[in-house]
Specification:
The protein contains 15 helices and 10 strands. It has helices at residues 3-11, 37-44, 47-50, 63-72, 82-90, 134-146, 163-172, 182-190, 215-220, 222-240, 245-256, 260-273, 282-292, 311-318, 321-328; strands at residues 25-29, 55-59, 77-80, 95-100, 108-111, 125-128, 156-159, 177-180, 195-198, 210-214. The strands form 2 sheets. Strands 2-1-3-10-4 form a 5-stranded mixed β-sheet, with helices on both faces. Strands 7-6-8-5-9 form a 5-stranded mixed β-sheet, with helices on both faces. It starts with a helix and ends with a helix.
Length: 332
Amino acid sequence: MTIAFVILALLLPEKALTASAPSKSVIAHAAVNARVLPLWAAKEQGFFSKYGVPAEMIFIRQAPTLVAALTSGDIQIGYTGGTAVLGAAASGSDLKILAAFTNRVTYDVVARHGIKSPEDLRGKIFGVQSIGGTVWMGAILALEHFGLDPNRDKISLIAAGDQSVLAQALVAGTIDVTVLDGVMSRTLREKGYPILAELSKANIPISSVGIVAKGSFIDKNPQTIENLLKALLESEAFIFGPANKGTAMVILKKYLRINDQEAEEGYNDVITGLDRKPHANLAGLRNVQRLMKLRNPNVEKVKVEDLVDDRFMKKLDQSGFIDEMYAKYGVK
């Protein structure tokens, strides 16, 4: 029995693990932030039930553990990013990206007082969450966007902690610059900290959070996959619906245990970051691969085209299903 299965046994109802319910799909996410809203809204608004998807959601703290559970078959669906999938593929795992809800870098580049332009970053300290992680990739792509190179321009990238720690480090002056989600950067902006770039406006490709499953599970359960995507696509359209902002914020407050202002900021980040038609983006995967191979040469051997199974998304898009959902919720 794997560790991931033990986790499931503790978190799920007993009937979900018995042979009498083989169609149960377990969906796991490795983050707890506003970007999980499409999953939470699908559950709270009954979209999983509407499309006949008997789904349970669990939180697994780290993406590598989530991927291991996917690979072993202990969970069926992962809500995770291209970094995890590429790393698994380099080790021989047969994981496929079915949809990607965010295909571009959405961080803000925030600097300490006294730094006025990207050129001022030469010789400075750039704080990231971990070397090789998603925030690190955002930092590298931000520097490339500015025409800077960490080695040539003597910019030190150091692992300082998660986003709240990075914000604190910026205020304390132990780092000079970092990349933050809008929820975190807005508070610093209000205090006069310079925002050197809003990368969401730069359209820098990256493969962020999406729906992932094993190729063998997809082939054996195509209708389950299609129905799952329908539920999530309606959930996304619901979130974008102007009349549903209040409900979406209530869901965020429930799952994140945040106040009204934080829910408002989280909702705005979701609206800014989500792609309305979440097709997986090969350019984003190639960017991830290019950066990952600096630390894991085996990643270069992976053909990113083989990581995407887009037949379901193409079918739903070409059939008009996605457009119908947006029209239903009054999204223009």
